[in-house]
Amino acid sequence: MDRAEVAGMLGDRTTACEAAREALLAGGDFVVWDGRVPSQQLAGIYAARLRRARKRGVETLALTATVDILTRLEAAQVRIGCIFSPDRTWAFMLFLADDASAVLACTGVRRAER
Q: What is the model's pLDDT at position 30?
C-alpha cells in the first residue's frame, strides 16, 4: 500500500482523518501491518487508552469516536495502520476494513516529549 492510496482512503470518518492525511502528505512515516484483529478486542484496548489519556491529560483526536466505531463493528476483523507526523509529535492510528479497501476509523494521540 502506498502513500497516495492511504491518503485517498482518509475521508472524514472521524475528525482525526484530516490531520492524519496532512501528516502523511507532508512526508510523515506510515505503516499498514499485515494481519487482522477482531474489532471488539480493539474496542476494549482503545477504551482503556481513552480512560488513561483522560486521566493523564493527553491530547487526542477522535479517540472517543474511534472507540464507538470499533464497538459497533461487532465481530468484524480489522487491519491496523499508523501515520506519524513528520516531527513525530502526533501518532495517528488507522483502522481499516479487512481487505484494506477503506479506513473505518482514525484517531490521533499527541506523543509525550522525551
A: 98
Of 88, 93, 84, 92, the residue nearest 113 (C-alpha): 88
- Say what the pTM is: 0.95
Q: What is the dihedral of CA 4, 5, 11, 13, to 10 degrees?
A: -130
Q: What is the pLDDT of residue 114?
A: 58
Which residues are 37's β-sheet partners? 78
| CA neighbours closer than 13 Å in the CB half-sphere of residue 43 | 16
Contacts of 30 (CB under 8 A, 6+ apart): 3, 6, 24, 81, 82, 83, 84
pLDDT in tens, 29-65: 999 999 999 999 999 999 999 999 999 999 999 999 9
C-alpha dihedral sign at 26, 31, 37, 43: negative
